Amino acid sequence: MATNSLVDIKKLSPKFQDLYAKTKDFVENDCIPAEKLFDLQMGKGENRWKIIPPVLEELKVKARSLGLWNLFLGKTYAEGAGLTNVEYGLIAEMTGRSKLAPESMNCSAPDTGNMEVLAKYGTPAQKEKWLKPLLDGKIRSAFAMTEPRVASSDATNIELNIRREGNEYVLNGLKWWISGAGDPRCALYLVMGKSDADNESKYRQQSIVLVPADAPGVTVVRPLPVFGYDDAPEGHCEIVFKNVRVPLENIILGEGRGFEVIQGRLGPGRIHHCMRAIGMAERALEYMMVRVTDPARRTFGKGLYQHGTIISDIARSRIEIDQTRFLVLNAAQKIDEGNAKGALKEISMAKVAAPNMALAVLDRAIQAHGAGGLSDDFPLAKSYAGARTLRFADGPDEVHISQLGRNELRRVDEIRAKFESQKEKSRALLAKL
Amino acid sequence: MATNSLVDIKKLSPKFQDLYAKTKDFVENDCIPAEKLFDLQMGKGENRWKIIPPVLEELKVKARSLGLWNLFLGKTYAEGAGLTNVEYGLIAEMTGRSKLAPESMNCSAPDTGNMEVLAKYGTPAQKEKWLKPLLDGKIRSAFAMTEPRVASSDATNIELNIRREGNEYVLNGLKWWISGAGDPRCALYLVMGKSDADNESKYRQQSIVLVPADAPGVTVVRPLPVFGYDDAPEGHCEIVFKNVRVPLENIILGEGRGFEVIQGRLGPGRIHHCMRAIGMAERALEYMMVRVTDPARRTFGKGLYQHGTIISDIARSRIEIDQTRFLVLNAAQKIDEGNAKGALKEISMAKVAAPNMALAVLDRAIQAHGAGGLSDDFPLAKSYAGARTLRFADGPDEVHISQLGRNELRRVDEIRAKFESQKEKSRALLAKL
Amino acid sequence: MATNSLVDIKKLSPKFQDLYAKTKDFVENDCIPAEKLFDLQMGKGENRWKIIPPVLEELKVKARSLGLWNLFLGKTYAEGAGLTNVEYGLIAEMTGRSKLAPESMNCSAPDTGNMEVLAKYGTPAQKEKWLKPLLDGKIRSAFAMTEPRVASSDATNIELNIRREGNEYVLNGLKWWISGAGDPRCALYLVMGKSDADNESKYRQQSIVLVPADAPGVTVVRPLPVFGYDDAPEGHCEIVFKNVRVPLENIILGEGRGFEVIQGRLGPGRIHHCMRAIGMAERALEYMMVRVTDPARRTFGKGLYQHGTIISDIARSRIEIDQTRFLVLNAAQKIDEGNAKGALKEISMAKVAAPNMALAVLDRAIQAHGAGGLSDDFPLAKSYAGARTLRFADGPDEVHISQLGRNELRRVDEIRAKFESQKEKSRALLAKL
Amino acid sequence: MATNSLVDIKKLSPKFQDLYAKTKDFVENDCIPAEKLFDLQMGKGENRWKIIPPVLEELKVKARSLGLWNLFLGKTYAEGAGLTNVEYGLIAEMTGRSKLAPESMNCSAPDTGNMEVLAKYGTPAQKEKWLKPLLDGKIRSAFAMTEPRVASSDATNIELNIRREGNEYVLNGLKWWISGAGDPRCALYLVMGKSDADNESKYRQQSIVLVPADAPGVTVVRPLPVFGYDDAPEGHCEIVFKNVRVPLENIILGEGRGFEVIQGRLGPGRIHHCMRAIGMAERALEYMMVRVTDPARRTFGKGLYQHGTIISDIARSRIEIDQTRFLVLNAAQKIDEGNAKGALKEISMAKVAAPNMALAVLDRAIQAHGAGGLSDDFPLAKSYAGARTLRFADGPDEVHISQLGRNELRRVDEIRAKFESQKEKSRALLAKL
């Protein structure tokens, strides 16, 4: 990556370069070597949801001591490291290489997005109570939006009911795919629901409220597996909210402003996901290359890499990774130059391209490993499962493709006018014949 | 499927039609409704490998009473139902719809291939001891070929050592991805190993011996997960063979004849896999269609099926399923007309096409279900994992593609001669100008 | 092809087998060797549209003497050879190998469809005047439907005006892509236009009338090129109809019955196109295989076929050709068993699959030939251009995909009911727990 | 494009910005409107190769007066405009939108590469005689490398014989696909041939000599069409060299240094091709968007853009164009930072990605136009033909893919070492358990 010229790491700020080098070292020499130990320290059976492997807390201590902490928080936040989205994007790519890196550096979803929301929209009291321990890595959090009974890729469909009653909100409804809610340290949910179903604007019917995970009426029903992975201890959970009561001051930004909050939340987070997917793909390509050149693995008299389509798969992967990285960094740069709203088109492009690219590269790497590639002896299958969820997370491909297409079509009147003018000039030239 | 004309079910034998109709009814009305119960009856923790859900045995009783038993065994076997490969292929497609159907009908891999081997090459004593209980559904079996330390897609690389010592063979080596070996009922392994490493023909160095699962020195080390699924109770296991001793009469067909056995074994089995993959794809398409027309799931003012690419995904899936089915049935027909060896090309084509098609259709169906499609609330994600293994099972895509390409090139001399003759005729015509 | 088992040529009627063998011999030994002579005999400049290369008439004489004449006309026509659609489909595949074969055997579009229309719907007088010389190969014809100013993939948009005036119809309008209209022998147009714009049914507004090519008011404006090919002498022409008058008896079937006619016309013709596309693809694959094994063409120390992806391209082409052929023959068989209307779904599948497959195979063959593959030294580039038009001819891919998808969705209520019943059975089983 | 952030035009040099704005205006308002006039001014029949449409010379005059002349020549050349490769790349993209723009600005292949060779390696006399009139736009030139009888994608196969005889070189051989050789203004060929077949290094056997187009013994045999386009007046020609004699001083750089010359020549030229392909794709996307929103083109009650996959095609095109542009500009930037040799990998990536992307976008645009898209009423079909040649020009995809894959594998030892070190660290951690 350091060799890409359009985004030349050597030209970025010295602060970034220092953090980037440290991150690289930390990921490659601390996180990746700790992955097997983490797996062994995982609890068995129900304990999978109760025990946090100690090595993770050790990595957190080390990361923090190195200054690799909360790097995701950009310039606009007092608490932040002051990195641009491009700079943090490059760091996120690096952390995408190891499943242990993001949390070790307190940069893992969904906490990052939740911390951004609290930092941006939280009241001083909300910040004190929730943002502080989150920034400290003491607690974790979840974002509860998706519901099983409606097509929640259109968020206006969301049904969880938020009713004002005296000085409390009362929540009733069902959520699922709430990532992180299985973690014993998860103390806070940001819950999106319908607080004003009759509002004439579909985009003013929703609110987001803060719900302590231990609030009466909250029941985590079950974790949902991704392919066969339960992703313990975080998990992706189904949660029932039954007459859950929270004080009115737990609202974020104000009633009816749920859409405003999620719009503000999603831009940079999508970039992080995309860049981590690129990191996954780079690691997968490394695994593939090491495998196909393994002198012990020869078939029909040749090294695997000398057969048919393997070299071509490597070359295509190289192309696809690099062109996708540019697309994502471009979106990051666009956010840096303005804001996430102005970069909607670029973010959509990145959001569609990166997970699909990662899946293609991972699938080739799996294939090069034989059946072993599907097991957990290599990080490929789990990465595949993770990358597959990204085609839904923060909106399915279809929604982004459709928005992007319509966005692009906004140029069409201008183009049509240009075409008309060109035709007129053409006719004028022909008229002289 | 009944509407496809090239292979019109109504024109096949009345016996087949009866069995086909019964299979369809059994799969749709017995197996599929029992799937959730099966999951609930599964053991927890270590018991996953010890308990066989009772509903499975009930289904076996019912299938057997309906005559839906051992249908895979073709005409050439006394014990068989006398179905052709095309006929059994169509039944296998039907069984591919439910994970419970193949075993319920005693038609599940790897038992089917093992029973074929025993029926074809077994001595009377081997048949009595192993084939009989297998045909009876009393025991299960595994086929131990793949090894972790070599590229075993080229079977000449296999290293497990088979040494003759007195009136015994002594086996030492390591196998993995031994499907079915986790099952408490698995009583027999067919083990491929190197018995004559110095034989000048690479294809005469291997033998296959029968090893009781409880033989001293056999250790099932662990099950290997497929995308997080352990596929308990069968599992895909790593097994150590350490000084495992079996009597000389446990050899199949004779020393050095391992390749002969696996060649004979693989043809029809590949057809079964492919047809079951088609059944999976058909069921996935049904799920997709039901989902996208669900009146409760509307986004942005439209039903899902009215959006963008969904209709196109359905149409393409229909095309891909149908053309793949023809390819597989064609290979089955080719085997029926001669033998598996003569149908090598057709089998390779089917073997490459069917799993890749199924994966594409399943992936679209998953996408149409949102994140839920990746969970076990629907049969899609697990089917995807299963279909993904088929791109390795019985040889990876790459090996089949390469064999097929070289096979096709055998025609080239004849074509070149035709081209030369055409050019000569062309020159003769021009000469008259 | 003779080796495909699902459609085993040896099992078809002896009459077919005789015609098939003769066709094969005629195409390979007469048509293909005559291609270069045909090119040389083509006129230069404006003469391209005036001269029919003599070798074509010689080939017609030979084909007719062999009984290879009007084979497209099926059993239902007195004039026909009595072949089924499957049988003629196989013959059409063979004729697709040479650009000279279809017309030599009086089996080329659009004459075939026009002859079918006249045979099926023509009055005795229409048959005598137009069908007879067409069947005789004395004249040629065109079908004038597509218009430049509307989206004529939806035929209800067609605007050419047909006005009844006394005992005449008066035609005014513009058509383009009228294939065959450039041919000096083209004597007849079947013209679709709007005769009753106010009819409440959009499908009753259109009529088809017979227009002699030399009728006053008809002007062939220009041929339209396809990727630079003008396809002289037939051409794909733009035609102005200005106050063109024909007698009332020139109507086909009756006023307002245009849709009825085109529905009846298109089914078998689409099969012919598809099968010829398969023939093109087979010939392209032959060219590719001969090229990559050419001993004079070695790069970097290896034969081309020993490099990377070439073998894979050959293997994939083999798979794609075969599975597409089955799809098309299946549609033909479906027509044979009922009629084109009942085979709508199968025809759509074939119509989408075959041209796209042919383009993929042709593109690989071109690539294997280097730049030469794009020239006319090989038949590949012209075939590519021809196959590319098939993605529009008789409806663009998009229309077929959309129809097919909606057609498939008609099953959804039945599937949903099945799912509900399965869920109920499942619940009943769980209730016993 | 101006909105892409990674390469923000507003941050590039003011000189570039001025030239870029002028180029854009010139292309959109002068070149594109002149395209139809150019076509009408083309000669007919043989005159296609004799007449240069006057409008082209008028455009050249205008471009030169605007300072839009020889912009391709970079900083390192005294004659150059001093633009970086990134800067000129962006201008090349703009010129790729109109077939008239590159030559109007004296920036068309193969002259650009030839001028670079002469500027870099030419003697003062060679420069005076050939470079000067080329820079002046008075003559044109060709580069004669490809041969019909060998696989010239491996340039060591080239066979044209260059024999030293007294103070002359004598050339004998056959070339084809010599672009530009049909142009009546083409005065010079740079001919690559074998001057020392016995040299032990395969890469020292070739030389390049300057051959006046009117040298005795040179015969332009025929133009080769691309699909059906002859690309007159430039053409892609087959040329016989029969005892062609040139003085010894016509050698470029020295005997046996042919490879050195072509290596130096190809880097930037490939970038130009790629960027022009991107310009083609952008224009195609504009055509597609205007077409599918044309209010006159509605089918089945909807605008085309409201149907199924059209929006998705637009969105995917947007993604593919943008990510490819970044890849190409990255290669340009890499050249700017060092030299073409150091950017070999990046150039290969761009060279594979850009033409394939352009073909995909063009094909979708063609499809959206119906059959008209294949004609010359729109610039799409001709652009497609042009872009298709780029998959061969300067090396076929396969060669670049293979080089890129092997290039990437050079990293593998380092990665393997890293993996080993990580495993060791992992084992050390586990040992503490």
From TrEMBL, chains A, B, C, D:
<comment type="similarity">
    <text>Belongs to the acyl-CoA dehydrogenase family.</text>
</comment>
<dbReference type="GO" id="GO:0033539">
    <property type="term" value="P:fatty acid beta-oxidation using acyl-CoA dehydrogenase"/>
</dbReference>
<dbReference type="GO" id="GO:0050660">
    <property type="term" value="F:flavin adenine dinucleotide binding"/>
</dbReference>
<dbReference type="InterPro" id="IPR009100">
    <property type="entry name" value="AcylCoA_DH/oxidase_NM_dom_sf"/>
</dbReference>
<dbReference type="InterPro" id="IPR046373">
    <property type="entry name" value="Acyl-CoA_Oxase/DH_mid-dom_sf"/>
</dbReference>
<dbReference type="InterPro" id="IPR006091">
    <property type="entry name" value="Acyl-CoA_Oxase/DH_mid-dom"/>
</dbReference>
<dbReference type="GO" id="GO:0005737">
    <property type="term" value="C:cytoplasm"/>
</dbReference>
<dbReference type="Pfam" id="PF02770">
    <property type="entry name" value="Acyl-CoA_dh_M"/>
</dbReference>
<dbReference type="InterPro" id="IPR037069">
    <property type="entry name" value="AcylCoA_DH/ox_N_sf"/>
</dbReference>
<dbReference type="InterPro" id="IPR036250">
    <property type="entry name" value="AcylCo_DH-like_C"/>
</dbReference>
<dbReference type="InterPro" id="IPR013786">
    <property type="entry name" value="AcylCoA_DH/ox_N"/>
</dbReference>
<feature type="domain" description="Acyl-CoA dehydrogenase/oxidase C-terminal">
    <location>
        <begin position="256"/>
        <end position="407"/>
    </location>
</feature>
<feature type="domain" description="Acyl-CoA oxidase/dehydrogenase middle">
    <location>
        <begin position="142"/>
        <end position="244"/>
    </location>
</feature>
<keyword id="KW-0560">Oxidoreductase</keyword>
<keyword id="KW-0285">Flavoprotein</keyword>
<comment type="subunit">
    <text>Homodimer.</text>
</comment>
<protein>
    <recommendedName>
        <fullName>Acyl-CoA dehydrogenase NM domain-like protein</fullName>
    </recommendedName>
</protein>
<dbReference type="InterPro" id="IPR050741">
    <property type="entry name" value="Acyl-CoA_dehydrogenase"/>
</dbReference>
<dbReference type="InterPro" id="IPR009075">
    <property type="entry name" value="AcylCo_DH/oxidase_C"/>
</dbReference>
<dbReference type="Pfam" id="PF02771">
    <property type="entry name" value="Acyl-CoA_dh_N"/>
</dbReference>
<dbReference type="GO" id="GO:0003995">
    <property type="term" value="F:acyl-CoA dehydrogenase activity"/>
</dbReference>
<keyword id="KW-0274">FAD</keyword>
<feature type="domain" description="Acyl-CoA dehydrogenase/oxidase N-terminal">
    <location>
        <begin position="19"/>
        <end position="138"/>
    </location>
</feature>
<dbReference type="Pfam" id="PF00441">
    <property type="entry name" value="Acyl-CoA_dh_1"/>
</dbReference>
